[in-house]
From TrEMBL:
This is Eukaryotic translation initiation factor 4E. InterPro entries: TIF_eIF4e-like, TIF_eIF_4E. Signal peptide: none annotated. One of its GO terms (cellular component) is eukaryotic translation initiation factor 4F complex. It comes from Stentor coeruleus.
Amino acid sequence: MSMLLEHEWNAWYDHSTPGRSAKDYDKGLFTLCTVKSVEDFWGCYNNMPGLHELDAKCGFHFMRKGVRPVWEDTSNRNGGIWKLRIKKEDGSQVWKELLMSLVGDIYKDSVGVDFNGVSISNKQTEYILTIWQNKDIYSQETIQYFLGLTPQITLISDPTYQSCQLLMKNNNS
């Protein structure tokens, strides 16, 4: 008997190539799996390469089915993103906790915002986590909830919030 999730999710791999422009971003996105149940989630998660195997500037995205990990997606464009910079040694634990909270809809009792997904990007000395909101609402409760999932982790810098509308505007100027 499968334990169905409230939403279906897609896991994506983001392969960066030198010289890739913003226009070519989609060419580096590849769907890894679709998750409909708890069993699907663990099958997908356990078969994804480890974060330590990611090349620099590459990453993973876990997004609601039908939502692409880009600001311009119709489900993201009126929302916002939280960015968290974390140490490499904390990446796997934080990634797993965020995924379980998101996919299991555990956050809904604590936060008044809905989420479209979460991303992790491998940088030279750190990981950058991005939490995708479907509404442009800055809320300290939101980030405090996510930070509370892994209280033993020290962030490299304070979390930042940005509106997808503003990001699109600044990227096109």
